Amino acid sequence: MRGRNAAIAVSGLFAAAVLGGLAARSNRPAPIRQPPREQAARQLDLGAATLAGSVLFDSAVEHYRGSFEHRGMYVPLAVASATIAASLSGARQPNRMRTGVHVLAMLTGVAGLGFHIYDISKRPGGWSWQNLFYAAPVGAPGALSLAGLTGLAGQQLRTGQVRPDSQSGRALAALAAIGILGDVAEVWLLHFRGAFHNPAMVLPVTIPPVASLCLAGVAAGAGRPSLRTTRGWLWATAATGLAGVGFHAWGVHRMMGGWRNWSQNLLEGPPLPAPPSYTGLALAGLAATRLMEEAHE
Amino acid sequence: MQTPRATGGRAPDVFTPGGWVPMREYDESEEVDFVIVGTGAGGGTLACKLAEAGFSVVAMDAGPFWRPLEDFASDEAEQSKLFWTDDRLVDGENPLQLGSNNSGKSVGGSTVHFAMVSLRFRPEWFKSRSKLGYGFDWPLDWREMWSYYREVEEALAISGPVNYPWGPPRPRYPYRAHKLNAAALALAEGCEAMGIPWTETPIATLSAPRGRARPCVYRGFCVLGCSTNAKQSALVTWIPRAIAAGAEIRDLAMVGRVEVDGRDRATGVHYHRGGEWRFQRARNVVVAGYAIETPRLLLNSANSRFPEGLANRSGLVGKYLTVQSNQAVWGISGKEIRSYKSPPSLALTEHWNYQDEGKDFHGGYCYMSQGPEPQLWANTQLASRGLWGEALIAEMQNYNHQVGLKMVGEMLPQERNAVTLADETDQYGLPIPRVTYSWCDNDRAMIGHALDFMGQALRATDARDIWKQTDDTCHLNGGARMGDDPQTSVVDADCRSWDIPNLWICDGSVFPTVGGVNPSLTIQAMACRTGDRIAAMARRGEL
Amino acid sequence: MSDRYPGYDVMTKRNGPSWNDVTRRVIDNRLATPKGPRFFSAAEFETVRSIADRIVPQRRHDPIPVTDFVEARLLSGQGDGFRQAGVPQAGEAWRKALAALDAEAQAAHGMPFRQLSGPERDGILHRMQNGDLHHSSWGGIPPATLFTQLVARDIVFAYYSHPTAWSEIGWGGPASPRGYVRTGYDRRDPWEAAEVKDGDDAAAIRKNRRVR
Asked: What is the rounded average pLDDT of the residues A87-99?
């Protein structure tokens, strides 16, 4: 069955990217207590990989639904896989190839946005709720750009191209704040499409916005809220992303035929791979707070 | 199904294969507050409202009590078990087609196989004589109906567009619209080419889970019964609520006669169940058998004090039967349409309901996308186009490419269009109905306009070989119309008969006019209003 | 006629998620419909078959048993829910129509309807459809009504109640619990019939073999 083969192929791609990335990671003894810069870089690596993983599986499912009508629909799968590998490999030295992958991810996201906008504009109804709900999602490709940006930030931090100071912390906080906000918009749109039929559907449009606001405060250098509070909301956002997979699995079960009818319900039910994008962005936000902390110290 | 299921203190649980829910039962000798004849859009809704208001209610239906999850096959022939296929005669210049088209025989009535299109009347239609110059005024105010429409839309979790393009503002539909299928996209393209608005059809099938009901899987068998419970029929909405509130549903119970005493008060109903005639006493009788069975029952209940039938001193019982024009244009698209997927009518335009300029006829119509299943489609090719033999087999090869637009148009009420009793009798020994129907010039003018306009719209897509289906009608209304004057109507605004104060009629047969939209939402809204009015009257001691 | 959906057989989905138990039961029963006359006499049965051969012509090894299906529906006693005033109930109306067709065939060709050639049968059926038959054996019932609302209708319904006919037109067939995902223009789920595009039969066959 084609659906099953495709699922196996994408999982294999994911596993290869993760294992390849980790294998390429420079093999060195971990210090007892890592410097905050190292911690922040690792969080960024992980955040980028999580975001890219979410994009890999989500675009695989959505583009499979779209029958891979254009060859271009395979691109995000390839680029997201490369981003996972590049992010997890944790380069110590400036590395053109890794930089190239991250930049490619950023550009692919922008190109995807263009394609998705084109898809909406050519449909009857144009910029209508119908097309925002059901045509190619406007926000989704942005996650790949964010993965690229986050991965690049991690790499530059580690290689020393960017100094772990308060300025870079604030820039990173702003990036994460905007990223989370974009994700919130996408989630709100799709949960509105689902009429918020389950009260839990409100969680991902209430917790992450608070985290985003906190990060915005941090980015603005307002001094409030505290880094501790911000971190709390970021961890809550990260948890929301992981819990979302569980909620969505429950959602698939609630469709007609449940998991037995997976060939329909994995596509029509709530998307399993989407929620962890929150986790990836929250990790980027946590990295930002780590840098700020170091600057304070 | 031959044996009643709702017995022994329990009723089928529509959400669980083989499941049951407890159901209160009433003794036949007990005089219940209300016995309701019919459990569809009118009777099912009213049973819920009255039971929730604290009345003792027994609601009877001639049809079986299905559990859709285990009883409904994905098969056209098998699912004809949902239709009222008892013997009926048709005549007139334009004899109607009944059965699958418009008549259900199940607990839940025709809502078990309706197309779920849930539209509000245009406000002016409630006063079409005064405001638009044709038909008759309803004794109801549109603003009041507007609030009852809301109640029904919430009860059915209607999936509809975020913004509705026509009429006064309405609250947002509880659930979001479904994704459009190709047939609906073709409607949208046609409308955009013609420069008129279109929208997603507000429809009574779930776009997200709700309670124990699962969302639509776009299997497309909607008018043959929904096997997933996504369809918010009376069977899975009002009826379970009614039972939970203490109503008793008696399935496979055919009411043959309403008994009226010497003081002109209804005392109960004679009904056939389990192979014998029985009698249920009641303080009030509600007839909700739809526009053919309701007049038939009233006429069949004639006695010495009401020799012309019950509630018929106006002579209007059975008169002014009014259907809706249901003509279509069809064509072949170069693209694969596969309109068998998804609910059949996901997009529509009400432009010609709200636009009065440029019409040479009274009334309005909407038109929608379509998605016939193979048997129906083959029969359409035969009956409407005369195709058979190699021509039919060849044309059916285009099934996945056919695309069409179908109207629901307002026909004008005419006294000559009527339900009367025939000499022949049915399996219960009851005289069968004779349904007489002829179109008027206005009907023909509207159909002509719609076919021309829809033809242009379809031509604006890539559809070719376009042809017109000129013969179809849908939805039954009238036959016991409501009004302000006992001389010219059968019931008052509260659906209470003028002649027998404890006899009520609550279904599409009370419609004085039909409007250009599917009637189910209006029937249910009216039933909700009637329920509230009865409760208010009871509080004031006016029952 | 060239096959538009080569290799597609809706029955390959029987054990998949598109069919539920009640559907399997219903279709199994239909495919096990007894053969031969039960409602009609042997002669009437042959006449029905000779009509069905013209209404839904078949050139397959294992033809759809249209006549048996027509019988089954008449035996079930289920009507359509309406009939024109003056037209008897379905079973009786069928017998009258068959007798009248024989009478017309005798009058025109000197033999019963079922023994006429295909074109001769077509000729009479066309005149029946157009209401252009006037033998007294119609008994005042309009032949056109009998054709469109009974005889041809029952035959067409019978034909398109068979999975072979569903496969022929590329219909998805039964669909519960699994319905459909891809519903836009030119969109096909992997469990739907693939039609031949640009004359590439092999591609369609390959896709149709994978339908489950």
From this structure: 84
Alpha helices in chain C (DSSP H): 21-31, 42-55, 66-76, 90-109, 118-129, 143-146, 152-159, 163-169, 201-209
Is B390's pLDDT higher than 50? yes
Token couple for B62: 């001639």
Phi-psi region at B365: left, alpha or beta (left = phi > 0; alpha = psi -120 to 50): beta
Domains, chain B, ordered by start: 10-539 (3.50.50.60)
- Residue C78 to residues B85, B377, C91, C95, Cα–Cα distance (Å): 7, 21, 10, 16
Residue of B nearest to C24 (CA): B73
Could you tell me if B470 lies within 8 Å of chain C, comparing CB atoms? no
Q: Each residue of B334-362: pLDDT tens digit?
A: 999 999 999 999 999 999 999 999 999 99
Q: Which two tokens stand for residue B167?
A: 């009429």
Quick one: pLDDT at residue B302? 97
C182 in contact with A, Cβ within 8 Å? yes
Q: Residue B211 region, left (φ>0) first, then alpha (ψ -120 to 50), else beta?
A: left
Q: Does A128 touch chain C (CB under 8 A)?
A: no
Chain B 142-161, residues with CB within 8 Å of chain C CB atoms:
none
Q: Which residues pair with B20 in a beta bridge?
A: B12
| Chain A interface includes C197 (CB < 8 A) | no
Domain extent listing, chain A:
12-21+36-296
Q: What is the secondary structure of B200-216 as a DSSP string? A: EPPBSB-SS-BTTBPPP
B touches which chains (3+ CB pairs under 8 A)? A, C
- Which residue's entry shows tokens 């068979």? C162
Closest-CA distance of chain B to residue C136, Å: 22
Of B108, B247, B54, B229, nearest to B157 by C-alpha is: B229
Calculate the CA A12 to chain-centre distance.
Answer: 20
Report ipTM (2 d.p.): 0.98
What does the alpha-carbon distance between residue B279 and residue B261 come to, in Å, rounded to a whole number?
14
Token output for A7: 């699922």
Tell which residue, A109, A102, A110, has the closest CA to residue A157: A102
Q: Give B-chain residues touching C192 at CB under 8 angstroms.
A: 338
Neighbours of A23 (CB within 10 A): 11
Chains adjacent to A (≥3 CB pairs closer than 8 angstroms) = B, C
Contacts of C64 (CB under 8 A, 6+ apart): C56, C58, C158, C159, C162, C164, C165
Q: Within 13 Å of residue C173, how many CA atoms lie on the same side as its CB?
A: 29
Confidence of residue C115 (pLDDT cuts 50, 70, 90): very high
Report yes or no: B126 and B149 within 8 Å, Cβ to Cβ.
Answer: no
**Domains in chain C: boundaries:** 10-18+172-209, 30-163
Candidates C50, C76, C160: best to mutate against B (most CBs of B within 10 A) is: C160
Closest CA to A189 of A238, A139, A245: A139
Q: What is the mean pLDDT of chain A?
A: 91
B229: CB partners within 8 A, 6+ apart: B14, B15, B68, B69, B212, B213, B214, B236
For tokens 């399993």, name the residue.
A272
What pLDDT shows up at residue B24? Answer: 98
State how far the Cα of A126 lies from the Cα of B455, in Å rounded to an integer.
Answer: 24
Residue C162 and residue C70: Cα distance in Å, rounded?
A: 12
CB pair distance less than 8 Å for B214 and A255: yes
Taking the CA atoms of residue C28, residue C30, residue C32 and residue C36 in that order, the dihedral angle to the nearest 10 degrees is 180
HEC profile of A114-162: HHHHHHHHCCCCCCCHHHHHHCCCCCHHHHHHHHHHHHHHHHHHHHCCC
Give the chain B residue whose CA is nearest to the CA of C1: B394
Q: Look up residue B5 and give its amino acid.
A: R
What's the DSSP call for residue B482?
Answer: B
The alpha carbon of residue B147 is apart from the nearest alpha carbon of chain A, in Å, by: 21
